[in-house]
Amino acid sequence: MAEIDWLKELRDRAEGDVLAGYSDAYLMTKIGDAVAFIDDMVPAAKRRLQSGQLSQRTYIKTVCDVVLRVLRDPEGYRSESDGTYSYTRSATVASGDMWLTNNDLTVLRGTTTPVVGTIGLSADRGWGR
Q1: What is the per-residue pLDDT across 80-116, written as a single tens digit (0 to 9) for each?
Q2: CB 90 within 8 A of CB 78
Q3: Domain locations along the chain
């Protein structure tokens, strides 16, 4: 697996000036936090990455997406109005917590979403680790 230039990958995926005002050291800390978060939340991801079942590009994209979710909306605005101004905040987003979407989890785990009464499928056998 090739060495990853995380700052370049993050900058290539960031839109507008979302990274403005953040030092490289801060961004690298957030990237490291996201890698550790994903590895802890989805242990199968590292194994799937090493075996080639999960592409390095998809893993990098997911790490960057997690970081960008935190940086895009630090105040956690969910909705905003104009007439007699009001706004709503998302506690999860405003807290700066990292989180994975259902799609992220599906891709990282290599599973399809189970339907009631069926068994979920996975490219990972789940035994012999």
Answers
A1: 666 676 556 555 555 568 889 999 999 999 875 555 6
A2: yes
A3: 6-109
pTM: 0.72
* Residue indicated by tokens 């997690």: 66
- The dihedral region occupied by 62, where left means phi > 0, alpha psi between -120 and 50, and beta the remainder, is alpha
- pLDDT, tens digit, for every residue of 4-62? 999 999 999 999 899 999 999 999 999 999 999 999 999 999 999 999 999 999 999 99
Question: How far is residue 10's CA from residue 116's CA, in Å, rounded to a whole number?
Answer: 38
- What is the spatial distance between Cα 10 and Cα 93, in angstroms, rounded to a whole number? 19
Asked if 66 and 52 touch (Cβ cutoff 8 Å), the reply is no
Q: Give the residue ranges of DSSP H helices in the chain.
A: 6-13, 24-41, 43-51, 56-72, 91-94, 102-109
Distance (Å, whole) CA 63 – CA 5:
12
